[in-house]
Design a protein that fits this description.
Strand order of the largest sheet: 5-4-9-8-6-7
Largest sheet: 6 strands, parallel
Oligomer: single chain
Shape: globular
Number of strands: 14
Distance between the termini: 22 Å
Number of helices: 17
Radius of gyration: 21 Å
Length: 370
């Protein structure tokens, strides 16, 4: 087995968390700035996501979009409802890290050199305006491109990819709508030479000064959505749909998860894991006990595992009794970050382990890998 290289928080305690079907890295804004700057300046590929309730709702309805978000090497908690729900469930989320807050912090930070930013997408003329208005010691404009409202195929032409690559940017800021943007990134990431890529739709409008961001007190109180609706009435339908989905998730996932948290006590048997296999191409990863935050802290080798190319991996979970949010997050990232290079299958999933997955919105992993 080889090592799994990921852009992860510097703190060994800040392990990923699962919530509402997605995985989040519980980092601070300062952590996120450091991770992005390091990847950009070292030319290390980092595709990161900024999931909010809209992302979670979209991922629940679009398996391909969900897969693309789960494959991101860094996933930030962008949404106060997610922070509140996570803390209600006992998850240690230090703060909300919105994509727009991260970009603002990058603008005002000072490092070895400013990051070269390329804007791609947005309403007609917005990318150009953002490129012309971009300011701050931490960034400089590398260029812009307005691909119009065509299909992903139309936006993935050789001429478009060549124009982006010719700019030699450090950071590609995509603004095509969350689902379409992540589909475009997934299709073209391997053709792009830009180290840091993310879909940050609102950022382009903010930088271009087409709309202003909510006052800080509204951001902290979780009322930024109200400000966005006042400035962009077309968002009413999206927020209404997201609210309905969230209400259902609160009843089907969060409430059962809260009751389970109050009732569950970890087994004294602890956790163990082992790898078996007759050949290099066939492996069985056996997990036993409680796969939780403490178990993953105590097993850094497990956190670093990823199969070799072409390996058939069976994850034997017949003796896995319980998973907490961190355990579910590890399982999701292992499966989804490995599925393009290996055959992954879950075996022997118990009723209790299945219920743990369902409580964090990850029941889909049973259908896709069992």
């Amino acid at each position: 087995m080889m090592m799994w290289h990921r852009a992860m928080p510097q703190s060994t305690d800040a392990l990923p968390l699962a919530l509402l079907g997605l995985v989040f890295d519980p980092v601070t804004l300062a952590d996120a700035v450091s991770i992005v700057q390091s990847a950009a300046l070292n030319r290390t590929r980092l595709v990161f996501a900024t999931p909010n309730v809209n992302f979670s709702a979209g991922a629940a309805q679009d398996p391909e979009f969900r897969k693309q978000v789960l494959e991101c090497r860094l996933s930030l908690v962008d949404g106060m409802p997610l922070v509140w729900i996570g803390r209600l469930l006992g998850l240690e989320i230090p703060e909300r890290v919105a994509g727009s807050s991260l970009f603002e912090a990058l603008q005002h930070s000072r490092h070895e050199r400013p990051l070269r930013v390329f804007f791609f997408g947005g309403d007609p003329g917005v990318a150009q305006s953002a490129s012309e208005a971009l300011s701050g010691p931490g960034v400089k404009a590398a260029g812009y491109l307005d691909p119009g409202r065509g299909s992903i195929e139309d936006m993935s032409s050789d001429s478009i990819i060549s124009e982006i690559n010719a700019a030699n940017a450090d950071f590609l800021c995509v603004a095509l709508g969350a689902v379409k943007g992540h589909h475009w990134i997934a299709r073209n990431a391997d053709r792009l030479n830009v180290p840091v890529i993310s879909h940050l739709g609102a950022v382009v409008n903010f930088v271009a000064r087409r709309i202003s961001r909510a006052p800080m007190w509204m951001q902290r109180c979780g009322l930024e959505w109200a400000w966005r609706i006042l400035r962009e009435p077309k968002l009413v339908r999206r927020y209404a749909q997201d609210s309905l989905w969230l209400a259902g998730a609160l009843l089907s996932q969060v409430l059962p998860g809260l009751l389970h948290r109050l009732e569950h006590r970890s087994s004294a048997a602890g956790f163990s894991w082992s790898i078996h296999g007759p050949t290099s191409g066939v492996k069985k990863l056996q997990l036993q006990g409680d796969l939780n935050h403490r178990a993953l802290l105590d097993n850094p080798e497990l956190r670093a595992l990823v199969p070799e190319q072409g390996t058939q991996v069976t994850i034997d979970v017949a003796e896995l009794r319980h998973l907490d949010s961190t355990g579910v997050a590890w399982l999701l990232r292992f499966c989804y970050s490995s599925k393009d290079i290996a055959s992954i299958r879950l075996s022997g999933l118990s009723n209790e382990a299945s219920r743990c997955l369902l409580r964090f919105g990850a029941g889909f992993i049973i259908r896709e890998f069992a």
